[in-house]
Amino acid sequence: MTIFVIVTYDVNEKRVNKVRKILKKYFTWVQNSVFEGEITYGKLEKCKRELFSVIEKDEDSVYFYEMEYKIVCNKKVLGQEKNYDSIIL
Amino acid sequence: MTIFVIVTYDVNEKRVNKVRKILKKYFTWVQNSVFEGEITYGKLEKCKRELFSVIEKDEDSVYFYEMEYKIVCNKKVLGQEKNYDSIIL
To answer: Which end of chain B is least crowded, N or C, by CB within 10 Å?
Structure first.
């Protein structure tokens, strides 16, 4: 069973690429500081453990907005819909 | 009736403060590029109209993740939970 998750982050420049490399394994990179996607609980916990070992807890900030069903979340776009998945880190 | 909305943005430096000033009227500034909060449909549409007049449609990107009930969205924090509401723009 998968859930839908939006991940946003505010991380020091020194660590941001490490965080993005981890998130790219699990989610789609949809905006400069935003990833989203459907994921199993098991993989979500694995992703969090990897991030936890990389971020600086008292400085960096990562939010996981978790929803049981993607359908409950209606995404509207103003301006450009971006996709950075093709960027190699 | 209010809905719960997460707003994320990737906007050119020249326009980002204008965007933030508008969003601060309607939402809570919870991370560098993220606002969130509960809002009526009427005010949400008003907020979007104001943003639409400020952003550059073919360059800037603003996402509205809209959910009927806040309870469907479970927010988890890794590291710091930030709040920029006290910042004067």
So the answer is: N
Q: CATH topology for B2-72?
A: Alpha-Beta Plaits (3.30.70)
A72 Cα to chain B: minimum distance (Å): 6
**Residue in the structure block whose two tokens are 């809570």:** B28
Residue extents of the structural domains in chain A: 2-72
Q: Is A10 one of the annotated binding-site residues?
A: yes
Residue with tokens 């907020």: B47
Q: Which residue of chain B comes nearest to A64, CA vs CA?
A: B76
CA B2/CA B6 separation, integer angstroms: 13
Nearest to A8 among B8, B66, B74 (CB): B8
Of A48, A2, A59, the C-alpha closest to A23 is A48
Contact A32, B55 (CB under 8 A): no
